[in-house]
Structure formats: C-alpha cells, structure tokens
Amino acid sequence: MSIDPINLLAIVAMGVATYLTRISGLFLADRLPRTGRIRVALDALPPAVLTAVVAPAVLAGPAEAIAGLITVLAAFRLPLIAVVAIGVGSVAALRAVMG
Amino acid sequence: MRSPVVSDIRDGVVDVFPPVFAMIPFALIMGSQAAAKGLSPAEVLAMSTIVFAGASQFLAVSLWSSPAPALTLALAAFLINLRHVLMGASIAHKIEHFGAWRYPAVHFMTDEVWAVAERRALRRPITPAYWFGAGIFLFSAWQLFTVLGAVVGSFVKEPERYGLDFAFPAIFIALALGFWQGWRTAPVIAASALVAVVVHLLVPGAWYVLAGALAGCAVAIVTAKPTEEAAAA
C-alpha cells in the first residue's frame, strides 16, 4: 500500500477539476431566472443528461441496441433492480447469439 | 414516532440502493483496470475519495501512464464532468436551504444521487438527511468496491461475456425514464441520444455528454406549449 507523489498530484488535480464542476452550478443557478424557458430547460435536464451519458454505449452495436430497447420496455413496468437484471441478461444472451 | 431525520436517511438509502447495486460491477472493473495500470489500492482509494466520479475515473485510468500526466487527466476529468454544472444549476434551488452544508453536499452529487434527489423533489423537499443518506451510502460503496476491484484484480476475465458492463447503461436508462412525463419527454430523450451518438462518433473526448444534454434541453424549450411556459413562470 503506497501512494506515489506524482500520482497523488494527478489525483488531486482531477479532484479539484471535478469539484469545480460540482460547485459552479450552485453559483450559476443564482444568475439564472427561475421562470420561463430556462426553467423548462432545467426541468428537462435530468432525462437529457442521463440519456446523453449512456447513448453511445447503448447504440454501440446491434446486440446492445436491442438489449437497450428491451431495457427501456422493462423500465416502464418493473423496479430498478429487475430492469438491471433484464438488461444484463439480454445483452449477454444477444451477444452469445449474434457472436 | 420515528424521527424524521432517521426516516429521511432511510429513504435516501432505499432510493439509491438499486443504482448502487448496479454500480458494483462497474466499480469492480474500474478498480481492477486501475490495478492493471499500476495503481496501488491506496491510490485507488485516494482517487475514489477525492475525485469520486465514476465516468471520469474510468477515463482517467484508460489515459493513465507513468509518470502520471496530471494536466491531461485534470482536463479530461473537467470535460467529462462538465455536466455537473448543469446538474448543480438544476438542484441548486432545491438544496439552498442546506446553507453552508451545500458546499460539502455537492461533493456527493453523482448522477445517481442527483437523479433520485431530483425525483424526490418532484414530490417533496429534499432534506440534508435524505441527500447525505443517499450520498454517503453510495460514496462508501464506491470506495469499498473500487478498492476491492484493485485488490482482487481482474477476477472476472471477460465481464462483457456476462453482460456485466451493461449494468451501468441499464440503470441509467431506468433512471432517465423515471423522469418520463408522458410523450412530451420522448423528443427530449430522442434528441439527447441522437446528438450524443453523433458527437461521440465525430468529436474525441467527452463533449458528447454536454452536447446531448443541451440538445435535449433545447428540444424541451422548442416543444414546450406556451401554457407550460406560463405555468413554469
């Protein structure tokens, strides 16, 4: 168990950069109007961000895309844990079948 | 009567438990890949504590070399985490009653904690007990399983074969659809997915996250009925 000083420096630099992104939204919000179009945009943000993060991984290939569709359908009906199990199971099966 | 603080902590843990469960394979893989790049378990612990952002840690490990390129790594982390600026702006008014506790609170703002908190905010106010309950639970699990991954190493030889890499996308799909508010949400999700995929293909780095998110928000503005804007106002 050891920490190399240069690695620690890199980790701290990454941490500072990441914390900056986390804190700056608080200050940005004070300058944004709480009504109108900006409010509509911020209300749409949760599904938009979550979709953007995973879309390339879900549309990476046919097996992933079909499993993604199955996961979407499951997500409308089932609790989160079941959705994950169905997503993992279907992608494994589709990859095995489709090579 | 049960204390409201305990009950809110419990709600936070319960709400974030499914995403935490889905995160476990992702955390184990992150830790084992870090170990494969020569990072010690102590360094993985330091990164998971100080950075505490899964996607950027994954990216950092793939970019890691010796000596560590600190500036490149910090820039990559900044870029992939720029979505936090938007997330923070969205959550800011819902946690402003935390006072000075907002500043430590945002360190626990991961996609998952933010998503469950935003969902709770649709129904009732977010309390510090709820936020820190969910945040510290996920934080502890992230430390535990990334370090375990680094110690045990690549114990699952081909995680893709078992679909384990898909746990992470699956939970994000489920979290995103938790914000489904009828068909008006469909164009937001479609635009966000389309732009993210195209930008991911064309532009190196993590710009696709920001581009997709902004595209989704832009479509929400364009498709909003005037009555909705008035209602929001």
Describe it.
- The complex is a heterodimer of chains A (99) and B (233).
- Chain A is mainly α and 99 residues long.
- Chain A has 2 domains: 31 residues, no CATH class; 54 residues, no CATH class.
- Helix content of chain A is 86%, strand content 0%.
- The model of chain A has no long low-confidence stretch (mean pLDDT 91).
- With 233 residues, chain B is mainly α.
Keywords:
heterodimer, A: about 100 residues, mainly alpha, about 0% strand, B: about 230 residues, 12 helices
Please count the beta strands of chain B (DSSP E, at least 2 residues each): 0
Q: How many structural domains are formed by the residues of chain B?
A: 2
Share of helix among residues of chain B? Answer: over 70%
List low-pLDDT spans of chain B: none
Q: What is the rounded distance between the termini of chain A?
A: 41 Å
Given as residue ranges, the uncertain stretches of chain A (5+ residues, pLDDT < 50) are: none
Number of strands of chain A: 0
User: Largest protein interface?
Assistant: A-B, 77 and 100 residues
Determine the number of helices of chain A (DSSP H or I, runs of at least 4 residues): 4
Biggest sheet features of chain B: none
Class per helix and strand makeup of chain B? mainly alpha
C-alpha geometry of chain B: globular
Main β-sheet description of chain A: none
- Quaternary state of this entry equals heterodimer
| Relative strand content of chain B | under 5%
Strand content of chain A: under 5%
Q: Topology as H/E string of chain B? A: HHHHHHHHHHHH
